[in-house]
Amino acid sequence: MASLLVVEDEPHIASGLRFNLEAEGHDVEVVETGEAALDVVEARGSSLDAIVLDVMLPGIDGFEVAATLRERGHFVPILMLTARGRAQDVLQGFAAGADDYLPKPFDLAILVARVHALLRRRQWHQAGAQADTTPPDRFTFAGRTVDFEAQQIRVGNRVHPLTLMEANLLRYLIEREGRVVSRKSILEDVWNLREDTDTRAIDHFIARLRKYIEDVPSQPRHVLTVRSVGYRFVAEPED
């Protein structure tokens, strides 16, 4: 059984989410506003296993809720519900710190499956943190270790948690080490966005990754910009 928080101000949707998630054996708390969601997370902390978060809320919206939680150091998985599933809305959700998204209207069975996927990743994270052996899904370069299962980067004694989307982007770049990766291919292959989207939105995610892995983020040596095209990952840059 998992402990879930549903943040949804439409009563019929909230009751449907509660019923279906409780039918799966989960403990579900429902709140109607972003302010209430922040209060619940502050009070319950790590006891929460996942959040289902609507974007359109009275008061502060879902984007601000997600961003505030990440800024405060809460990395509970977030499934964000968007009204239209527009590419820009999806990217804004990922930029705020969401781990997955689902456009409205949605099939409840799909939502439950997405929640279970987030819960599995959280279990892997916890298992990896407690294990004495080295998980297989790691990449080490220049004194840095990326643990994709645990969704974190270790640099010396510091550990930087990653959202699912940040981890997926970094994995995509690492798997294509030395090759130029276009912004368009990142949108299509990492986030499955095939609309006419402003690809410069990717720059925001790259800037965040550089804060984690670069000694001097303003002078990157590992995630390089290829002007007018995209980016290139270099594990061991030449001096």
**Helix coverage percent:** 40-55%
Oligomeric status of the shown chains? single chain
Query: Low-confidence parts, pLDDT < 50 over ≥5 residues?
Result: 128-135
Order of helices and strands: EHEHEHEHEHEEEEHEHHEE
Rounded to an integer, what's the Rg over CA atoms?
18 Å
Mean pLDDT: 86
Shape: globular
Separation of termini?
Answer: 52 Å
CATH hierarchy: architecture of the largest domain? 3-Layer(aba) Sandwich
CATH class of the largest domain: Alpha Beta
Strand content: 15-25%
How many strands appear in the DSSP assignment? 12
Looking at CATH, which topology of the largest domain would you report?
A: Rossmann fold
Plain-language structure description:
This protein is α/β, with parallel strands linked by helices. It folds into two domains: 3-127, Response regulator (Rossmann fold, 3-Layer(aba) Sandwich); 134-233, Winged helix-like DNA-binding domain superfamily/Winged helix DNA-binding domain (Arc Repressor Mutant, subunit A). The protein has eight helices and twelve strands. The strands form three sheets. The protein has a five-stranded parallel sheet, sandwiched between helices. A four-stranded antiparallel sheet has the order 6-7-8-9, with no helix packed on it. Helix 2 packs parallel to helix 3 (62-71) and helix 3 runs parallel beside helix 4. The longest helix is centred in the middle third of the chain and has 23 residues, at 108-130. It is globular, with a radius of gyration of 18 Å.
